[in-house]
UniProtKB/TrEMBL annotation, chains A, B:
Pfam families: GDP_Man_Dehyd. GO terms for cellular component: cytosol. Residues 9-337 form the NAD(P)-binding domain. Belongs to the NAD(P)-dependent epimerase/dehydratase family. Keywords: Carbohydrate metabolism, Galactose metabolism, Isomerase, NAD. CDD domains: UDP_G4E_1_SDR_e. PANTHER family: UDP-GLUCOSE 4-EPIMERASE. Its EC number is 5.1.3.2. This is UDP-glucose 4-epimerase. Pathway: Carbohydrate metabolism; galactose metabolism. Its cofactor is NAD(+).
């Protein structure tokens, strides 16, 4: 299906979603160049290539080219494009913590919006016009109804992080309207969790995890005493927030499928796909599933709602199935089991 | 009212609205530093200071400091802030042609959004946190009802230009939420027209004018044969589009009032004000008013609607009246008369 000479640039390829996607790309025989600025990735002992990519190379028995580069830096980016010829770009590089985005909005807008604009300009200058964008279900704002379908209204996001994702989608739409040569796919992720089934690569958050699953994982190995559950008075079956969790490997494969779609169909224009399982799980259900997978008790405390959190969100994922021939294959038990495996093997993430 | 030692940075101060605002600032005894990248301003014979600012200096008998600088350039901007201490920043520098924004969206997002983010970051680094932003009535998108009031919904803009104005307002809101020291006023302009009553400074569009009044002005002096009227089947009293035209001097004074408000009230947070007259005039009414003011016949042709144009837009300008003690003082006849005076004196703009 894939082709040896299809060269892909992956920005932010040393991050959580990036590294898992690189693994799937290599396994599908794509040539991969990764750029990353190490803002949220561990350098490791190699001192050149991030630890997660060394592990990806070991797992795949293939090599990936790595260049330290910040997408907001015009000159650095241009040098990457001068050195390498790309057929496609998958753009993960971004800041992603919702809470932090409220404290540091300028940093979020600069990195996520201006970084993307910078990348798109350089791509245009080098006539590389296939782009896969790392979007988010947060672009739907407060859902009017569920499940979320791609043609529903976007915007009215509740935090700067979500707004950056929304703004970039608007930029991409306008870009595709102005220049019919562009082929852009925006993938709206629901809640990526889990780790590669090898237990060798996974999520390695800096500091206190912002998301449920890595927090549970740290509680499970005794790194944190309690899990905080933010609100049990939501309008859901057990009162806790409901989300559409998706296994990171399913998500990574979604990117490969999207790229193959662009390549084989020679598609142009702006397209959007939800990447989710279509099933919602409450916080309490995730806790129970993790306890089952790990055999560990996860102590938790119910605390107040967090501002900006919505009660429930899950995808209608049928469009990706129909168009990209993609669907999630792993369930909540797989997600918990692989998280647990990764966390046990790597209690301090890549630093151990 | 004003104070000699109040130093104002005006970005894009060699443009149409910028130059008229600089004139009013100087007359109110503010110290003014202008930066501009000459992307839409005539350099003139001086070769250092733009022609419009030389005329502003002559009219006011005061001097303005000028520095050639691009707001998208971090190092250039930082140098300006190193050399000068500012109390307030008024930010005009932006691309502003709706049609062009559809053809070159990346340029518009980079200049208008990333340029502003760059400026805000440098301001923060130098602890300058009073900001007046050049916004637009286009942020209201397609009006649900008229007149437009500041607390109405924004977004759903019909072109990239409008989206850049909307996005920056969102950034400014988030910035003021994250850091309570900021004092930000966003001024939503309706349709600025006319020229300084001296006939010495005015609008000097590059190439074919994008807006009605400068186009009429060029027809009036024989530079163009016909005016094109885009659609006469709108749901308005004569079928042509209705807009709230505001005299450029009224608009300029609005900025001075906003700055004085920030200074005297020591206000913080994000505030928005419409700057308009509150009255709507149709295209045909503007043509008639211009014919009356100039004594010239304005030949016109009715052609198809332009995509993205809305039928009618006018302001509720009572908030600016109440809070800023500002209101428009000049009517449509003044606007046409001053445009005509400027155009007669300067048939080729500043180049003559």
């Amino acid at each position: 299906m894939a082709n040896k000479s299809w060269n892909v640039l992956v920005t932010g390829g040393a991050g959580y979603i990036g590294s898992h996607t690189v693994l799937e790309l290599l396994q599908a025989n794509f040539e991969v160049v990764v750029i990353d600025n190490f803002s949220n990735a561990y350098k490791g002992n190699d001192n050149i290539k991030p630890e997660c990519l060394l592990r990806v190379e070991k797992l795949t028995n293939k090599t990936v080219t790595f260049i330290q580069c910040d997408v907001t830096n015009w000159n650095e980016l241009k040098d990457v494009f001068k050195k390498h010829e790309f057929h496609s770009v998958i753009h993960f590089a971004a800041l992603k913590a919702v809470g932090e985005s409220c404290e540091k909005p300028l940093e979020y807008y600069k990195t996520n919006v201006c970084g993307t604009l910078n990348l798109l300009s350089v791509m245009r200058d080098f006539n590389v016009k296939r782009f896969i964008y790392s979007s988010s279900a947060t672009v739907y704002g407060i859902p009017e109804k569920l499940p979320l379908v791609e043609n529903m209204k976007t915007g009215d996001c509740t935090n700067p992080y979500g707004k950056t994702k929304y703004m970039v989608e608007e930029v991409l739409k306008d870009l595709c309207t102005s220049d019919k040569e562009w082929s852009v796919i925006s993938l709206r992720y629901f809640n990526p969790v889990g780790a590669h089934s090898s237990g060798q690569i996974g999520e390695d958050p800096n500091g206190v995890p912002n998301n449920l699953m890595p927090y549970i994982a740290q509680v499970s190995v005794g790194k944190r005493e309690f899990l905080y559950v933010y609100g049990n008075d939501y309008d859901t079956h057990d009162g806790t927030g409901v989300r559409d969790y998706i296994h990171i490997t399913d998500l990574a494969v979604g990117h490969v499928k999207a790229m193959i779609y662009q390549k084989i169909r020679n598609s142009t224009g702006f397209k959007v796909f939800n990447l989710g399982t279509g099933k919602g799980y409450s916080v309490l259900e995730v806790i129970r599933a993790f306890e089952k997978a790990s055999g560990q008790k996860i102590p938790y405390k119910i605390v107040e709602r967090r501002t900006g959190d919505i009660s429930a969100s899950y995808a209608d994922a049928s469009l990706a199935n129909k168009e990209l021939n993609w669907q999630a294959t792993k369930n909540i038990d797989d997600m918990c089991l692989d998280t647990w495996k990764w966390q046990q093997n790597n209690p301090d993430g890549y630093k151990c």
